[in-house]
Amino acid sequence: MKPLSKTRTGRQNRIVLLTVLAVMIITFVVTLGICYHALQNESYARYVGIMDVAAEKIAKSVRGMEMNAKNVFDEVEKHLDSPEAVIAALESKASLNPDVSGYFAAFEPEYFPEKGTWFEPYMHHKDSSDYEMTQVGSARHNYHRTEWYVRAKESGESFWADPYYYYDGTDISGHYTTFVKPILDENGQLVCVCGADMTFEWLTKELQRINEEFKNDDMLKHKQSDFYIVVMNNDGSCIAYPDERSVSMTEDDVIHNMSQKKSGIVNMTIYGVPSTVYYGPIDHINWTAALVVPQHSLLKQLLTPALIMLAIAVIGLLIVWLVCRRRKDAEAV
Q1: pTM over cut 0.90
Q2: 50: which of 10, 67, 76, 189 lies 20 to 30 Å off by Cα?
């Protein structure tokens, strides 16, 4: 009878082991799924919060650039007595902000009769070092017809012009944006449109600083987060980004949301890496802050609980196997 009992016991032990293994696998999968969805919800709240904080930091930097530019424009407004006084005003303030490539004051036709139809003194960097003054208004450069001039004249308000690319084969070639402010007389009539041209180097530096702040945050270190922030125009093009990691939006609904200053989330592949992009408007300007999170970042956070659960399952299975083995040995005696 012993051989029969031994066979029956071995079969029962296998059934128990297989049953325990099946239960553990099901439990492992279900628990892992619950953890994954919990991490997704927690990550959503965390990354949206980070994106909002980044947008506010960028907006603060933008407002600082505006204040510096307005100081120059105010100086021009105080010296409208003569063309020479305007030029002197631009020269006196141009070096206050090294991030600005140039300041200009584009006047209405015949405002200074001796200057004729086009008078636009431009104080700008020469070879990325010293400043020089150039009179850029002419029939060839009829600034009265430009989008920024017409808009300033019609609205009477300051604004940021759409980003553009300037190239002349020198060191000052690059991507630019312009902060524009109309100067009005006591009757509310336009005198001139002042502007501050700047590349996006200052914004790239700001993004690098913001990214470093988040990178060194103790809580985010604990979360094993791997993300970076970029700034996009409302047409989906990337205008500032750290470490040459540009992002371009091509989906129509995303671009529409950006143009309407709405927030959203989109999954896309960036440089071959599946990523989730959280985006939202930047206050006071028609730009969008976007937080790019590689999807493997979420899997990194899931790795620790998965290994813990796997270790528990293996230990549990080993304990069951030992119990069955002892039972088998006891019945064999």
Answers
A1: no
A2: 67
